[in-house]
Amino acid sequence: IEVFGKYEKVMDYEGHIVRANRMLEVVRKIATDYAVRQILHNGFAGEISDLTRFYVLYRWNYGEAKVQFDEARKLAQSCSIDLAKEWSRGGFIKKEKEFIRVLGPQERNLSDIKDSSELIDVLHRVLLLWEKSKRSEMVALLSESGFGKGEAFYRAAQAISETLPNDSKEKKLLDGFLSGKERIISEIKDKLAQGRLFE
User: Fold this and answer.
1) Residue 4 domain-assigned (yes or no)
2) Which of 58, 129, 142, 160 could make an SS bond with 134 (beta carbons 3.0 to 4.6 A apart)?
3) Which has more confidence, 20 or 183?
């Protein structure tokens, strides 16, 4: 950005003038993508949605703490998310006076997220089903959503777990679920194979 200030005007390849605020957005996006790649151990950053990217970065930066609205807005903006739109949608982002709080799975209701195909919502549903020992429903959800076969889902779960303190309820749910990952993947493959037999 320092180089940006040396010129009277900066233009993109189409001849449009690039203003400082647009340049800041681009820099934030690049920094966000880099951070997510590092958090996910250099993989699968392109396979996760903007909302999941926001969730992972929020947990990495702030853990389970409330954050001033403006701080959360900047993080959301770097993930191409309209914070006001998301908290009014009734998802995992909550506004409490001048603060933003990101809800973990233990603070959400299964019925509120049952129709969402968003990775972070599916992860929260999976964790709630796992906690209630509803294994067949959990495997069915992972199979039907397509997330159960992909490494990105498990990497995102692992990355979130690594950002949380050991006494966190969310971390305990994530670690418990992830400890049975290989068996779950095997069950999903079996379920898919059985489905093909009856087609």
Assistant:
1) no
2) 129
3) 183
How many CB atoms lie under 10 A from the CB of residue 195?
10
Whether residue 1 is contained in a domain is answered as no
- Taking only the tens place, the pLDDT of each residue in 3-55 is 667 777 777 788 888 776 776 666 666 666 666 666 666 555 556 788 998 99
Residues ≥6 apart with Cβ < 8 Å to 127? 105, 170, 173, 174, 177
Give me the domain span that covers residue 178: 106-197
Same domain, residue pair 23 and 86: yes
Domain boundary among 104, 126, 154: 104
Tokens of 161: 């777990």
With beta carbons less than 8 A apart as the criterion, state whether 67 and 183 touch.
no
Residue 184 to residue 154: CA distance in whole angstroms: 11
**87 in any annotated domain:** yes
Residue 82: φ, ψ to 5°: -90, 105
Tell me which of 26 and 57 has the higher pLDDT. 57
Q: How many domains does the chain have?
A: 2
In a domain, 160, yes or no: yes
* 109 CB burial (10 A radius; 0-12, 13-18, 19+): exposed
Where among 104, 133, 150 does a domain terminate? Answer: 104
Is pLDDT of 107 > 70? yes
